[in-house]
Amino acid sequence: MREEALLLNAPDKRPAWSGEDEEFVQRVLNELDPLLREAFLLKYVEELSYEEMAALTGAGVSALKMRVKRACDKLRERWERIRDD
Predict the structure, then answer these.
(1) What pLDDT is recorded for position 27?
(2) Which of 3, 15, 36, 70 is 20–30 Å from 50 (CA)?
């Protein structure tokens, strides 16, 4: 929840991404468990509310929030590992 609040309050200054950056993000997303990937994409790409996600997937709101959190944790961990190399 804290991460979502930070994202919502973040300035809308998006860095220019290279094709290499997008390729990396796609590769890391593909490494996620399918349920985590689905929840992450519905929340941050499709910009659905948790209630909309629940209606679409049949999963509970609590489960979806946990999936999004786990997806963010895994993405962050992978990003930091690659960045530090």
Answers:
(1) 84
(2) 15
pLDDT at 25: 78
Beta-carbon contacts of 75 under 8 Å, excluding residues fewer than 6 positions away, are 28, 29, 32, 40
Enumerate the H helices of the chain as residue ranges: 2-9, 19-31, 34-44, 50-57, 61-84
CA 2 to chain centroid, in Å, comes to 14
CA–CA separation, 51 and 59 (whole Å): 10
d(CA 53, CA 14): 26
Q: Taking Cα atoms as reference points, which of 81, 52, 76 lies closest to residue 2? A: 76
pLDDT digits (tens, 9 = 90+) for 19-68: 777 787 788 888 899 999 999 999 999 999 999 999 999 999 999 999 99
Contacts (Cβ under 8 Å, ≥6 apart) of 32: 40, 71, 74, 75
